[in-house]
């Protein structure tokens, strides 16, 4: 999962009703995780039919996430070059194309299609938040929460139905290709809305990535940790429990529980942190939930009575709150939209890059030593995130002077 604070503010009232813009945004957002979440429940089936290793299977998801990082870095430039709204539709069109390519049951098509949809998701994630800021500005918080939930719901449905759909259609590739349909429908819904909205302002404040800013580096470390935990479990949670003797259908439902637990965490944790300005507490608390679930899955994979469903829910709370809390603290600690956009771009780009390498590294470790070493990688990611949380601390959104002092101390 990836939104960030955009750099510009609208100069004119949009030509369409905000509710219609929101409808288009939600239709697009549903497609920004569903195709990614469709692959992990089928991973063991893909390995068996294509005769590939765990490392090669992990490379598919790693490549998609790395392309998301590339898309995050180039998305703002594409929005300026082609217009944010047309580029957004084109990005989701790439998701549709990549999903269609994955309908061919050969390894090159699986990898190539995954790269295409990853690039589309990365570009769309950057541009989507700019549309929300410019055309739903009076309700930007609610709109952002709405499309994050739409992303999560798409992933949840995908995780739950991908194996039954593969059985019904007679092949794993058909189950991956079916996500072309909602992406095409979303583009069809969005295109007339984008035409009525019109092109964005010609001049937009932009700045380079703040690599030398201590706060930006801390937030990048935070996003790297939460992103690695998210994509690591997204890729390997279902296969891990298939290795424990679970049927693929049941393992897919476990992944769905993991996804469902993210929704209330994503909605409530940032709101609670903002209400009392206790970002460090809520970021630390939700991280502790995620680490507890990960440790439980490692040390006691199938506890009596509750089974691993509790572990999946705790992991979901951790990663569900982690991403929006990272965006929240960026909004608090940056003085203007341009700085927020640059900081978010750095944090998300670094986060996706690290997360993209995580599933591949885990797959290689699984091939070499088994799952325990791979799960330790996720625990190390949680440790990095915890250090970043402690260093970032709490700071009021409006206290720019204090924020600058904190950044100088962190540098």
Automatic annotation (TrEMBL):
Any matching Pfam family:
MFS_1
Kindly state which keywords UniProt assigns to this record, in alphabetical order: Membrane, Transmembrane, Transmembrane helix
> InterPro entries under this entry?
MFS, MFS_Cyanate_Porter, MFS_trans_sf
Coiled coil ranges: none
Do the record's keywords include Glycosyltransferase? no
Which SUPFAM superfamilies has this protein been placed in?
MFS general substrate transporter
Highest taxon of the lineage: Bacteria
Listed transmembrane segments: 61-80, 87-105, 111-132, 144-170, 176-194, 215-238, 250-269, 281-303, 309-332, 344-365, 371-390
Protein name from the UniProt record: MFS transporter
* Organism of origin: Pseudonocardia charpentierae
